[in-house]
Amino acid sequence: MKPKHIFQAEGIVAGYDDKAVINKISLEIPSNKINVIIGANACGKSTLLKTLARLIKPTSGKITFDGKSISKIPPKQFARFVGLLPQSPIVPEGITVADLVGRGRFPHQSLFSGWTKEDYEAVAEAMEIMNITELANHHIDELSGGQRQRVWIAMALAQQTDILFLDEPTTFLDITYQVEILDLLTDLNQKRGTTIVMVLHDINLSARYADNIFALCEGKLVAEGEPSEVITSSLIKEIFGLDCTVIEDPISGSPSVVPIGRHHVTNGMHSLGNG
Amino acid sequence: MMNKSIEIIIAGRRQRRRRWIVVTTSLAALLFVLCCAMLLLGNTIYPVKDVMLALLGYELKGVSFAVNSIRLPRMLAGFFAGIAFGIGGNTFQTMLRNPLANPNVIGITTGSSAAAVFCIVILHTSESIVSIASIIAGLATVLFIYLFSKGKSFSIGRIILVGIGIQAMLNAAISYILLVGAQQDIPSALRWLTGSLNGAQMHELPPLVIFVVIFAPIIILLGKHLSILELGEQSATSLGLNTDKTRIILIISAVFILALATATTGPIAFVAFLAGPIAKRLVGVGFSNVIPAGLVGANLVLASDLIGQFAFDVRYPVGIITGIIGAPYLIYLLIRMNQKGEL
Amino acid sequence: MNSSIDSKNNLLKPHIPRHFIAVLVACLVMLVLCIIASLVFGSRAISFNELIAGLFHQNVDSYGANVVRQRVARTVFSLFCGAALGISGALMQAVTRNPIADPSILGVNTGASLFVVGGIAFLNISTATQYIWLALAGAMITAVFVFGIGSMGRGGATPLKLVLAGAATSAALSSLVIAIMIPRSYVMDQFRFWQVGSVGAANWSSITTFIPFLIVGILLGILSIAALNALALGDEVAKGLGVRTGVLRLTAALAAVLLCGATTALAGPIGFVGLLATHVIRLILGPDMRYVVPMSAFAGAIILTISDVCGRVLGSPGELEVGVVTAFIGAPILIIIARKAKVRGL
Question: Could you tell me the sign of the dihedral formed by the alpha carbons of B90, B91, B94, B97, in that order?
Fold first, then answer.
């Protein structure tokens, strides 16, 4: 089991070109849990994730990891604890799966070293978890979207971090692969206790797979907690501006959002949504 | 289960490493052969023994002068400039993740070229001043391209367009300097327009050699960092790479060697563009491309110079040969990238 | 309700750009100033009396008067060349629907150079008319080639693709140019006069050679102007509006190449004038081709003549060739466009 870490943000403001996208957010990431950040487009989900993962410097506020400010931790050392899978990672042309996953070992290697036994083990293990061992010596260009995504997650796993940030890991994937990826991440969390923090688009999958939800609206943190407490029709109205009714997911028992539009609404439901 | 996976990975990597070693050794061997050819071939072909003795410092009438004052400096200039263009070009191409983003296309060598031609033709300065000026101009060109192409988001297209714009100005300046300064001194004009090893002299070489010996190893050492940069800003940062610092070290090292090579031989057309992609084609992906790119660069320069000297009844400068080989490849690459929708 | 119909009517009326009259007057004033400057300034400045004597008193044979007479030819030539380049740039940009189409960027100049050099080396040509036809052929073939490569693949001819195709082609062709020249010093000699991109060697015979090409080019351009406005909306829309896009492209491109090819043949490669002229005009007057094309002619003539004057003054006692000056003025425009263009468009 991965050790417990205390990862806190206090009043952080961050954005691009002096324009604050997230405004005074304070939070603590529950350790060894699956955390999902939800919110409408351009509400700052991705910016929050990147700021926590040190890709963006906050203009004010502070982020601490086990009590130490993250800007004071040397980059390589931080990268041994915290990994990030960007939304659209860049594939070097012609690279093989094993070599790409192996690049995740960078924070554990020195300037002169080649691959050590630990490197091989970490890469093999990451590829087994993601079920891509048979693809080891294939070129990335030959893979399907779902397979690629698993390769990228494997690269982040080979980094062997206790905390893993993922920026929309299921976007552009068919629903089958979305579920597959989320199942694999849940395995990872349950078997190893890896803390997962991800941005997801699908509100219902978020509610099903998350242990903890951070709901953002216009750069502010508006709700936080277990899905069953947080996901309510009034919250959805607040962050998406959408009328809906929240029912119980018949499979998992988690909350499930059913939108209400202007058409195809049977009698009586309008008032339910608006109320 | 675990052991089996490790074996699969090791087997694949061993195979790729073997290919890397075979290719790199062959490139080095070929380079050695070309270096020998540069020393042995010429207007008069002297016996191997005489050439060796002349190189070792024995005074042999005719041989000593031809070998030590003409062929050796020519060979060394081509060798080191080739390595510099190959490694420098490959560094930019890998860092910006685009084979088109090379010093030839975005005008870094043109900056150095303009400074060198100004110092040599107008100011008649010494080699060391020429070297310094060409380095400063190379760095300034990079800085300008960076400043002008900086926008909300990183765009390789913008870098290339800005580079081509700056290059157009620099080229105009070069042709003007040549026109007023040298009274159309044709050999020197050719050197600055296309790159040439003609008239390379021993006393011009030390700056180039020293900088290549110092900065090429730095880039080779940072090969692993370069391959992490290739994953993009976000992945590289989250893997714990200090991207800004790495990029600055790489750019400065690459510009230093590119600028000195340009100041010595002129901007030998397309070597900086061709070396990286050819090396990648040969060694594959997975192991560092830096050393093979340097070797390919040197091979290209020396082979093209031999072709230019001996294949036709007129002697062509090396840059004409590399230009005629390189430009069609650039066009081919454009067509391929266009068809794949990468541009 | 009424007001919305009114505004609709306004939209349907032939719309004269807001500043059109002001711009027209400004252009005319600048044109006159340019002409005076071009006659007066140079490596030897001319006094007012000499100017009058040179222009109006043919019997006065002072040195100053002769200089003025020589500069008259030069000025007329540079006005014509500038106008041709301006129209050519506007047409090319419209045909390729691309903001950076310019003869120098599309490699058309180098294509013309290669043919001229080849002609001098292998066909023994030496007269201005022969230069023109060869340069035209070279320009046309290169333009088709570069545009062909640049428009392959998704998204058609984006600025980036065109620039790269042009740069690559230029590089290849200039290697060939030098390869042809190296063993033939006499070609180098003849070619040098041509290659610098200058209006300094102009005389009345080069002007009379140039005029027919200018007229035909302008006529073809006028024929295509209205339809080019439709083309700006995209091929499908233009076809929907009844434009025969193939014929239109051919006509307009022919006009563009004719104009810039003839200029290149007589004055040598001069870059960026068309790019600069068209952009300035479009910035002020908007995208309507009926105004952009003729006003670009004015702007081109002014830009080229001013650049020539600057070159003479800055380069004194010699002169700075106008091609060098326009590269320094025009390249920043390319950079500005690159900065403004949307990322996808690149």
Answer: negative
